[in-house]
Specification:
By secondary structure, the protein is of the alpha/beta class. The protein is 44% helix and 11% strand. The protein has a single domain, classed as Aldolase class I (TIM Barrel), CATH 3.20.20.70.
Length: 313
């Protein structure tokens, strides 16, 4: 379900590209051995590709040096087994372009970037967003995925996204996580046509089924159960709509638990329970998962027998 970038004349990237969590020790130090096992599990579980340094990777608690260490270590360890998307979001145009160029040089297949924002109130105009992505595109030769999510506090209309796809080289993929995602995906595809190489679902797959109905071709989810998401995506891609619906309904309790209860720490809790990683702790000041939430998450997961709970056994 994956291939080369259509900008370069190959297939478009499709399928399941879950976010890789960042693993720490109890002391908050990067745990690269756990990180490698995490990546191996996610590939064995059927991930079509991976995304690193996203919000669900706790990118907001990483230093620039740690980002460099993680990008280099993960891309080296993956060694071309699957394509890897590197998140390079930064408010500064130059910094984002430099991060993206470095990711490309290390072997990234794509970069994912949010529009410039900082804190709760600092935003820029559409003109500046357009200039930001134009400058970013000029710095690299791999595709750019625009992440359209509420956390940026920036309204990106379907018309504006489609315009950038048509006018800016490399702008070709869109992860839509806003309310009414399916309607926005449908409008984006209508307005952008062939320039929209990758209309993708996000937000832990909580809206995956309507997003697929709207034309989504990729899903960027949490990293705990790619095997479950693959069952949905593969059935849909092969034209087995009712099988896809049945699988979605089967996995929906776990998808919902991640989206509404466990959040960012869900994948690490599942991986720790299954022996994939040594420690599930976040980095301070992000709070640990409440023990009762964790208990409910594991009970929900065990009903589905995902690979994560038995991969390392």
């Amino acid at each position: 379900m994956s291939g080369m970038n259509a900008i370069s004349g190959g297939e478009r990237y499709t399928g399941v590209f879950p976010v890789v969590p960042t693993t720490f020790t109890e002391a908050g130090v990067l745990d690269l051995e756990s990180q490698k096992r995490c990546v191996d599990f996610m590939i064995d579980a059927g991930s079509t590709g991976l995304c690193i340094l996203a919000n669900f990777s706790e990118q907001f608690v990483l230093s620039d040096d740690e980002r460099e260490v993680l990008t280099a270590a993960i891309l080296k360890h993956v060694a071309g087994r699957v394509p890897v998307i590197v998140t390079t979001t930064h408010f500064g145009t130059r910094v984002c372009a430099e991060r993206s160029r470095r990711a490309q040089d290390l072997g990234a297949a794509m970069v994912m970037v949010m529009p410039p924002y900082h804190g709760a109130t600092i935003r820029v105009t559409e003109e500046k967003i357009y200039e930001f992505f134009s400058t970013l595109s000029a710095a690299i030769d791999i595709p750019i995925m625009i992440q359209d999510a509420p956390v940026s506090g920036t309204a990106l209309s379907a018309a504006f996204l489609a315009r950038m796809a048509k006018e800016i080289r490399n702008i070709a993929y869109f992860k839509i996580e806003t309310p009414g995602a399916a309607s926005k995906l449908r409008e984006l595809i209508r307005l952008g046509g062939d320039a929209i190489e990758g209309p993708w679902d996000g937000e832990e797959a909580i809206t995956l089924l309507p997003d697929l109905e709207a034309g989504a071709t990729g899903a960027m989810t949490g990293g705990g159960y790619p095997d479950g998401i693959r069952k949905i995506m593969d059935a849909w891609a092969n034209g087995r709509r009712e099988d896809a619906v049945a699988e979605y309904m089967r996995w929906l309790p776990l998808i919902n638990y991640e989206n509404r209860q466990g959040g960012i720490l869900t994948a690490k809790a599942l991986m720790k329970e299954g022996g994939v990683i040594a420690c599930e702790a976040p980095r301070h000041p992000f709070p640990a998962m409440h023990p009762e939430v964790r208990q409910g998450l594991l009970a929900t997961a065990r009903r589905l027998d995902p690979l994560v709970l038995r991969w390392a056994r």
